[in-house]
Amino acid sequence: MAMRDVLLLVVGLVLGLGVLGWRRGRRLHALFQSVHAVDVTALLGYRHGRLEDIPLADRAVTQRQDGVEVTVAVLSRREARAFFGTDLAASGIQPVWIAVKNDEPAPYWLLAAGLDADYFAAREAAYVRHTLLARSANRQMDEFFDQVQFRNPVLPGTTSSGFVFTNLDEGTKAVAIDLVAPRRRSARSFTFFLRVPGLKTDLSRLDRATHYPPESIVRLESDAELRSALEALPGRTTNARGTADGDPLNIVMIGKQDDLFPAFLRREWRQSEVVYLGSSWRTLKSFFLGSLYRYSPVSPLYVFGRFQDVAGQKARKSIHQRNHMRLWLTALEYQGKPVWLGQISRDIGVRWTLKTWNLTTHKIDPDVDEARIGLVQDMLYSQSLVRFGFVKGLAPAPVARPHRNLTGDPYFTDGLRAVMVFERRPVALGQTEIFEWETPGVAASRAPPPVARTAAAG
Q: Is the pTM of this model over 0.70?
């Protein structure tokens, strides 16, 4: 095969990543890394680090249930590269260190598929980092990855530890540990939410005391007080000067960070990066390749004189489609839980505009009520939503006379905002309670269906 043909094949593989799904794309990307790169240092031999040189104790988190104790830590990209002797993150691989102490009388088995349904086997993780012309180094890498992987079972009275090779997450990583003891028909489940260094998000800047000193907090106890306070909150976002209205503030979240963020992580929501050179470059690549960027930035909108405190998104197949959300912390507390005012809409495409610095913006689905109710449904499956309902938020806008956001996209709405209360404890679907307040969809915000119009005309 001529060198030109090889180069064309490589370019085709790279462009093809944008068409493939996230998991499959990252696996092909990992394989591509093993083909295109020749690591000169690997020709001199494979070198790995020592576990005792990694400060796992500084960020490891431990939980215990009865006689089973689990400790988990996620390595940063730099730590993983130093320990494994290769840049696993470049191939979309993130090693998670797990230690299980079993003080019960039966052996337990760790279910790696519960941690990541698409996890990498140890030899697979090593293989995608192999280097051409370095057979000895590749063999040493295989052996080392074998040695440090987590191995089952965890026998009674022992502690087992090692790595599971998962797909790369940034910002916060949800780690679900499921252990089963078939002989006793017993299972133990643990959920960890671990910070991963490196992602630049709005949340890293959030300091509640800066916005609201303790004396300014409005503490609400009754449902009637809550409803009245929520209906008095602003109805729409604005620009930085507060001179133009934008997207509707159509959601309210009630809960501490430890209540809210695990619920969203369970449903594959991710924080959005702030806008800076690195995130803009990744956004640009995703735009032209049509690939997925799970942490793509959202533009700043303003409430209470400041841009969003938290931005999140649920990515879909490409950067063109996603659900995105912005939240602002308010001065309200309901039964000891902070109240967040927010905005959600569904991105359905990317278009050119002169109203943004980068000349592009996402086009939103004009039916913002669908995005709102879709979020409620999503959170019902999060196992953390304990109560929800709807309150008035802004003037209704029918299809014939829609509102417009700051970039000119039209949207229609019944004017209600969804209110959701979260707790970290597991909540089954049938246990979720309802605020008996407003009923969505009755504000004549929509045009009647074609059949109804025909009947009326007749």
A: no
